[in-house]
Amino acid sequence: MTQNAREPSFRESVDQMFNRAVGLMDLSPGLEEKIRVCNATYTVRFGVRLRGEIKTFTGYRSVHSEHMEPVKGGIRYATGVNQDEVEALAALMTYKCALVEAPFGGSKGGLCIDPREYETHELELITRRFAYELIKRDLINPSQNVPAPDMGTGEREMAWMADQYKRMNTTDINGNACVTGKPPNAGGIAGRVEATGRGVQYALHAFFRDEKGMQKAGMTGDLSGKRVIVQGLGNVGYHAAKFLSEEDGCIITGIIERDGALYNPDGLDVESIRAWIAKHGGVSGFSDMHHVGDGASVLEEPCDILIPAALEGVINLSNAADIQAPLIIEAANGPVTAGADQILREKGTVIIPDMYANAGGVTVSYFEWVKNLSHIRFGRMQRRQEESRHQLIINELERLSKDAGVGWELSPDFKQKYLRGAGELELVRSGLDDTMRIAYQSMADVWHAREDVDDLRTAAYLVAIGKVAASYQAKGL
Ligand code: GLU
User: Fold this and answer.
1) Bridge partners, residue 145, by sequence
2) Is the sign of the CA dihedral 185, 186, 189, 193 positive or negative?
3) What is the structure's pLDDT at 1?
4) pLDDT tens, 256-280?
């Protein structure tokens, strides 16, 4: 699958989508431009002594919008990282945070590196040095710029970055809030690792509750039995596929990875494929019967829901017309180019856009940041009190039943579930579900009410840009 020469770059795609939405708004041209442009991009080249020689790395941190601070967004480690990509991703962070009402501006970072080529101790040296360069310019800072994991990074890198910040700011009591996505025993929050995949699941729940949306996609019923193809079984794709198959009864018929795909209309076992990839680095060898060499061709297989959860630009002018799924949910950032978006819109394919679909990550990052600043785990004060109030009700119900001689018995299962006060994980999931429902409704209201808006992406941009504009206007801009 090669991208067509007429295809705009990722950043141009984001700008085109932005312009489409802004064309339907009544913003002054000055404000429109102020929102669209990226405020600043810092490029750093630094050397690290590795294997007896100095190796130079290039990294970026881009700040798209500071209408709210801190600014927020992940740091990715990938060989393809470049300024254009980081700026597009930073812009998406601005709109994503606005849409889900996470009180942040947008930012994104990246390091040009293939992390698989390095030993753990080497990656630690590189990460600490990159973090040092960003920290000394306040590009990692609890009140100004708060990174998080993205492609190629995870809890481990975030723990190194937080530790580096704390070494350089020994008296900052809020140091832990300088990055999110940290391990639970190093200032992290329960449910952050699964958050983006969980958010994809909640987004689909919200869509399946929207009758008009379902009609537009020509879909009926619930998630049970729906055939799903996932591209990328990394953190996001894996968790989405896991929850959808284990909890909602979806059938995962295709899994696309960089070395090909597995396709089985009867369903694939997500856990065993994930374990195979962890051991062998790809899907090859897992099952010859179901292996497809040209992985990207599986994007075009019939299915109900297509989940691109890997790179940007994978659905483009070269394959958009052949995509058969009536519903695409963009778990990755920017998987559909602006040209492909138009083709799919004309075909009637419904796309749940990235800025909403993968906002679960930053939403739970927001909870983690609040937890770090408040220095207390969610639920610590209320949990037992909630349990004792529930116990009071149970006691009273049992007493009333006994006094009335009706012999009602509360089932032990109900009692156990009802009595248990919510812990941090339950609260995080509840906050995420609430966020995804409210944000969906805000997009769907625009999508269904306005005749000039025929897709969820434009609706999402309209809501998000409206919020950013309101915030600038409130400051008198
Ligand atoms: N990298 C994730 C994203 O693209 C998470 C960002 C964050 O948690 O700040 O949304």
Assistant:
1) 71, 141
2) negative
3) 44
4) 999 999 999 999 999 999 999 999 9
Select from 356, 365, 369 the residue to mutate for testing ligand 1; criterion: most ligand atoms less than 8 Å from CB. Answer: 365
> How far is ligand 1, taken at its centre, from the CA of residue 259, in Å?
26
Cβ–ligand 1 distance for 189 under 6 Å, the answer no
Q: Residues 96-134: pLDDT tens digits?
A: 999 999 999 999 999 999 999 999 999 999 999 999 999
Looking at the domain 191-379+422-477, which fold is it? Rossmann fold (3.40.50)
SS3 state of residue 319: coil
Ligand 1 binding pocket mutation candidate from 93, 236, 356 (most atoms within 8 A of CB): 93
- How far is residue 93's CA from residue 146's CA, in Å, rounded to a whole number? 12
The CATH code that applies to domain 40-188 is: 3.40.50.10860
Q: Could you tell me if the CB of 198 is within 6 A of ligand 1? A: no
Question: Could you give the CA distance from residue 331 to residue 358 in angstroms, rounded to a whole number?
Answer: 5
Q: Residues of CATH 3.40.50.720 domain(s) within the chain?
A: 191-379+422-477
What are 426-451's pLDDT values in tens digits? 999 999 999 999 999 999 999 999 99
Helices (H) and strands (E) in the chain, counts: 16, 12
| Least reliable range by pLDDT among 5-9, 142-146, 168-172 | 5-9
Helices (H), 210-269: 211-217, 235-248
Q: Which pLDDT tens digit goes with each residue over 370-426? A: 999 999 999 999 999 999 999 999 999 999 999 999 888 899 999 999 999 999 999
Q: Where in the chain is the domain with CATH 3.40.50.10860?
A: 40-188
State whether the beta carbon of 364 lies less than 6 angstroms from ligand 1: no
Cα of 386 to ligand 1 centre, how many Å?
Answer: 33
Catalytic residues: 108
